[in-house]
């Protein structure tokens, strides 16, 4: 006679809790992080990936708080896990926001502000150069296994900030706000060589216009600025990957620092 498998309600509740709380944090990070959180990725894929990660990582997380899932304390923990995962994904997305900002700065200097199209991810018009740099950044991110490092950092976050009822520290949100300043500084550093070169070209054309008023700068200025910007951008492409690798490493470090700062 085969043995009968019996499961009590207490054991079933413990299994559901051990799966649900890590699953919610993982789903929040996947929904907001680069590559995984793009609108082109179907929701079923995001939910399935988060469920697989929860099943794989959940048994290594130790004992969960002895709190019923359907209770005030359980809902509070659920909300905390959503905030933690979303904050981690947002801190990594700031790196790609810096790349898009660099594309906006460079596009304005090159006279490509009118060359824009509707971007489904941002929900508005985006410059062509900004979208190009963003796609290149995503390809480099995948090439250096950045998506795998994000998942590894997510698994490590459960040890740095375990699931608990304790409220999150306010210093973590302050750190996230300060990390937003990296969008402007990193974007400007990436676009600075092109901005400086195009500015020098504009100054040269201004001096040429003063020396020879008969020359129509408005007729030749735009083609020269655009051509010069494209040539300079071509020279900057080999240096894009090393710069972005440093920014990706900084983004991953910020994810861990954010989790540690949120710890009460």
UniProtKB/TrEMBL annotation:
<keyword id="KW-0969">Cilium</keyword>
<dbReference type="Pfam" id="PF01311">
    <property type="entry name" value="Bac_export_1"/>
</dbReference>
<feature type="transmembrane region" description="Helical">
    <location>
        <begin position="70"/>
        <end position="90"/>
    </location>
</feature>
<feature type="transmembrane region" description="Helical">
    <location>
        <begin position="215"/>
        <end position="237"/>
    </location>
</feature>
<keyword id="KW-1133">Transmembrane helix</keyword>
<dbReference type="InterPro" id="IPR006303">
    <property type="entry name" value="FliR"/>
</dbReference>
<dbReference type="GO" id="GO:0009425">
    <property type="term" value="C:bacterial-type flagellum basal body"/>
</dbReference>
<feature type="transmembrane region" description="Helical">
    <location>
        <begin position="132"/>
        <end position="155"/>
    </location>
</feature>
<protein>
    <recommendedName>
        <fullName>Flagellar biosynthetic protein FliR</fullName>
    </recommendedName>
</protein>
<feature type="transmembrane region" description="Helical">
    <location>
        <begin position="175"/>
        <end position="203"/>
    </location>
</feature>
<dbReference type="GO" id="GO:0006605">
    <property type="term" value="P:protein targeting"/>
</dbReference>
<comment type="similarity">
    <text>Belongs to the FliR/MopE/SpaR family.</text>
</comment>
<dbReference type="GO" id="GO:0044780">
    <property type="term" value="P:bacterial-type flagellum assembly"/>
</dbReference>
<keyword id="KW-0282">Flagellum</keyword>
<keyword id="KW-0472">Membrane</keyword>
<keyword id="KW-1003">Cell membrane</keyword>
<comment type="function">
    <text>Role in flagellar biosynthesis.</text>
</comment>
<feature type="transmembrane region" description="Helical">
    <location>
        <begin position="47"/>
        <end position="64"/>
    </location>
</feature>
<dbReference type="InterPro" id="IPR002010">
    <property type="entry name" value="T3SS_IM_R"/>
</dbReference>
<keyword id="KW-0975">Bacterial flagellum</keyword>
<keyword id="KW-0812">Transmembrane</keyword>
<dbReference type="GO" id="GO:0005886">
    <property type="term" value="C:plasma membrane"/>
</dbReference>
<keyword id="KW-0966">Cell projection</keyword>
<feature type="transmembrane region" description="Helical">
    <location>
        <begin position="12"/>
        <end position="35"/>
    </location>
</feature>
């Amino acid at each position: 006679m085969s043995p009968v498998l019996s499961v009590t309600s207490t054991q079933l509740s413990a299994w559901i809790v051990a799966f649900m709380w890590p699953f919610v944090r993982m789903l929040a990070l996947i929904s907001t992080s680069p590559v995984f959180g793009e609108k082109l990725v179907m929701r079923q894929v995001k939910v399935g990936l988060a469920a697989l990660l929860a099943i794989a990582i959940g048994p290594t997380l130790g004992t969960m708080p002895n709190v019923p899932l359907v209770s005030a304390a359980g809902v509070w923990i659920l909300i905390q896990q959503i905030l933690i995962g979303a904050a981690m994904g947002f801190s990594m997305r700031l790196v790609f926001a810096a790349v898009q900002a660099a594309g906006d700065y460079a596009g304005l200097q090159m006279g490509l502000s009118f060359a824009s199209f509707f971007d489904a991810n941002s929900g508005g018009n985006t410059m062509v150069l900004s979208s190009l740099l963003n796609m290149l950044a995503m390809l480099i991110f995948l090439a250096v296994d950045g998506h795998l490092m994000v998942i590894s950092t997510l698994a490590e976050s459960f040890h740095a900030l375990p699931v608990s009822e304790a409220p999150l520290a306010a210093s973590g949100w302050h750190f996230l706000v300060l990390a937003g300043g990296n969008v402007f500084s990193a974007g400007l550093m990436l676009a600075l060589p092109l901005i400086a070169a195009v500015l020098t070209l504009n100054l040269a054309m201004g001096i040429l216009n003063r020396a020879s008023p008969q020359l129509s700068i408005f007729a030749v200025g735009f083609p020269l600025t655009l051509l010069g910007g494209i040539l300079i951008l071509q020279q900057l492409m080999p240096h894009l990957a090393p710069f972005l690798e440093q920014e990706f490493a900084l983004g991953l470090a910020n994810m861990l620092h954010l989790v540690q700062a949120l710890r009460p």
